[in-house]
Specification:
By secondary structure, this protein is an alpha/beta fold. 36% of the residues lie in helices and 25% in strands.
């Protein structure tokens, strides 16, 4: 419900009455707040002859404004919502089933958006203000929060919340959704068990983190795994000996910034069997390639890219962000460190599919050489959903790791 002017005045008056009666010298429980809300709404209802449904809405909205996330609370409790986007006072947009639509409610003021932002970031031990207007954080429930404040954000405070399922995505679920074929799943299971290093690539929203979670099911339970992320999102539950590391922004209690590069270097001294990097997006690509070329087989990471071949160009660019190296040296590091590239995509029906699995076979002249193994071929549409088949189009050339691990070659 979006309040009209008179309703907004009523709401503001009731909220002010409650705040005046709250004893701020102690921690006030939710039950006491509910009692205060009941009292003021009951009095208001009698005075203004408000119908019962209107009083119920007022009670709910007042409690959410005082103790929860205001108009965002219902969205945060709705399991089908995967993304929440607040564009200042211009409106709230939500993503459900891959489709974005406008929410029928909005904040009553820009100050209230700022209050909610401070509430969320403070709970995450992050600071956001005009001097530091951009922040990434992880909410207590695991959702990813991104905030941009004015003057950087021209149309007011911007909030983006990426939500994740309470239960991690499994390979079985991906099979049920036809995002991957049984043959591809079986191949990747053997590849992970044998210690092939895998790079999961794709565009924004293609499901890279979700797919990495599913792949982690195949990691042998007796291994020691170090997980490195900007914002902790992965839900790896199949490994007991698990270490999770998260970056830290500068300025929190005058603390020094801790980057992905720092965490990768630190992980090498933790005796990892495998290193999992949630996303490679900058100069840390060099440290990652160093890990992959110094005995940390079976490591997995994700990367934004527009195609399998583009993935190599992206890695080259990211390495060059941190240091000057000959392009050929970088390509040789990529060719010898990465065994498989799994490319994911989002089709026009908003479904996420595994589009390609490609083996990196080494160098051909001055270029990294590829051996395509699986590919998605579209065959048409069925009831608005893109139909297709995921075909085997090649055989693995480098099967030494399969042989050493005693795993059936892919």
């Amino acid at each position: 419900m979006e309040y009209e002017q008179e309703e907004a005045e009523v709401f503001g008056s009731l909220k002010g009455q409650i705040l005046e009666r709250i004893d701020l010298s102690r921690e006030v429980p939710d039950e006491e707040i509910q009692d205060l809300i009941d009292e003021v709404v009951l009095a208001c209802g009698k005075e203004r002859h408000l119908p019962l449904d209107e009083r119920c809405r007022l009670k709910k909205d007042l409690f959410q404004a005082l103790r929860r996330m205001d108009v965002l609370q219902d969205l945060l409790e709705e399991p089908d919502v995967t993304e929440i986007m607040v564009n200042g006072m211009d409106g709230i947009f939500v993503e459900r089933d891959g489709k974005i639509s406008r929410y029928d409610r909005n904040f009553r003021s820009e100050d209230r958006i700022l209050d909610i932002i401070q509430q969320m970031t403070a709970a995450c031990n992050r600071t956001v203000n005009e001097s530091q207007p951009i922040v990434d954080a992880r909410l207590a429930n695991g959702d990813r929060l991104h905030v941009v404040l004015p003057p950087v954000a021209v149309n007011g405070p911007i909030i983006t919340i990426r939500r994740f399922p309470k239960e991690p995505m499994t390979m079985k679920r991906l099979l049920d959704l036809e995002s991957i074929s049984k043959e591809e799943s079986s191949f990747l299971k053997r590849a992970v068990q044998a210690g092939y290093s895998i790079l999961v690539a794709g565009g924004t929203g293609s499901g890279k983190t979700t797919f990495l979670n599913a792949l982690s099911e195949f990691i042998p339970a007796d291994e020691r795994v170090i997980v490195i992320e900007d914002t902790a999102e992965l839900q790896i539950r199949s490994v007991e000996n698990l270490v999770r590391l998260e970056t830290r922004a500068a300025g929190v209690e005058d603390s020094k910034e801790i980057t992905i590069r720092d965490l990768i270097r630190a992980s090498l001294r933790m005796r990892p069997s495998r290193i999992i990097v949630g996303e490679v997006r900058g100069a840390e690509a060099f440290e990652l390639l160093t890990c992959l070329n110094t005995g940390h087989d079976g490591s997995i990471c994700t990367c934004h890219a527009n195609s399998t071949r583009d993935t190599v160009s992206r890695l080259e660019t990211m390495v060059l962000m941190g240091m000057e190296l000959p392009l050929q040296a970088i390509r040789r590091q990529i060719a010898s460190g990465i065994d498989l590239i799994v490319y994911l995509g989002r089709l026009r029906d908003k479904s996420r599919r595994l589009l390609e699995i490609t083996e990196v076979t080494g160098m051909e002249g001055e270029q990294v050489a590829f051996n395509p193994l699986f590919s998605f071929r579209e065959t048409g549409e069925n009831s608005g959903r893109v139909a297709g088949v995921q075909e085997r189009i090649g055989e693995m050339k480098n099967i030494e790791k399969f042989l050493r691990a005693g795993v059936e070659a892919g």
